[in-house]
Amino acid sequence: MVIELLAGFKGLSPFKDATVDDSWDQINRCYVFLAMVLMGAVTTMRQFSGTLIACDGFTKFHAQFAEDYCWSIGMYTVREAYDLPASMVPYPGVIPWNVPACVPRRLKNGSMTKCGSEKDVLPADKVFHLWYQWASFYFWIVAILYYTPYIMFKQLGGAEYKPLIKLLSLASSSREQQMKEIQERVVNWLFFRFKSYIFGKGYYAWLRKNSFSLVIGITKLSYLLITILVFYFTGYMFEYDRNTWYRYGADWYGTRFSSYMNVNDSITLTKDILFPKMVACEIKRWGPSGVEVETAQCVLAPNVLYQYLFLFTWYLLMAVFFANLISCFLHISEMFFSNGTYNRMIDQGMLPDKPSYRYVFMNIGAGGREIVQILTDNSNPLLFSKIFDELTSLLITTSKNSAFVENPARTDSSVIEFDSSPSL
Fold it and tell me: What is the pTM of this model?
């Protein structure tokens, strides 16, 4: 029964036997998706098992009540305390929020330091840390986002080409008779499509022969936009300052976070700002004298793990951003500069550069060229050369017959002028 239950999730696996999307898109659909699922599983197990926080200093409340209250309402650090040296704070950001702005100190010459009026100083700023409640949900949501473009890709027509890939994968392990049958089926399937691509006229014909390439482009753009939006909105999880998240990976090895602090006296690193391990918690209640307030320190142990998971996420998002940017650029160049794509097909398929090959390739549109690229990526050169050669012969013959019907006086082979210019 357990095996049957697990088998039901096989369809959700990002690693498919037959894939239509290219390796650039699979980085998002497979590897980023899997990384987010694994981190989501780790944070879920950590968040819902074991001790999450431990507080010390409460005398009026039961320990379990105090810890549940602090976890639910939120714990805080004091922004101004991040600028203080280690000798003045037990942990970065942890001081009483109502501490005096200035404490008079005696100098070596016997005089006292002067402090301004407390009325002229803004109160200390509490920075509440509530993002930890959403850490596990964050990774699951991001995983779903990175799988969504693939679902959209299949719904917009990408799934139609899986039977073609499955036929090609069967051919590599088939006998000669079966290979011929597979070759015939693939040629017929391609001929039916490419005939309408080459000889169709008007707007709808143009859209039909370029639609697959447009769908691929939309999918790649979706991956790029998702990466940008995930990175941008992750900064809003942290109340201190979203810019701190944006440079988190770059600041990891000791760069100080603040432009106005004295670097030599500072102890606070970016990881201690975003993921404090020691925080303060304040509980209020009604008492004999009115509202009673009690403050204590709490340890956020999961942040030791979270700081590394989010560091990995930062670097992963940056790498995926540049990968998707390159992917979009390459796809646009393939759509409008098809000579390079044609040369790659000739090299991969080990084909001669015939005018008929160039004519067919340049006139099947950007969508047709993507289908040919699927052929070259999923079949051995011998099988591809046979398929493409037979397909080209059928399309050229059809074109000649079509030209003869339009002008019976021209019956020679010159009815076709092989135009090497690409058509979109």
Answer: 0.79
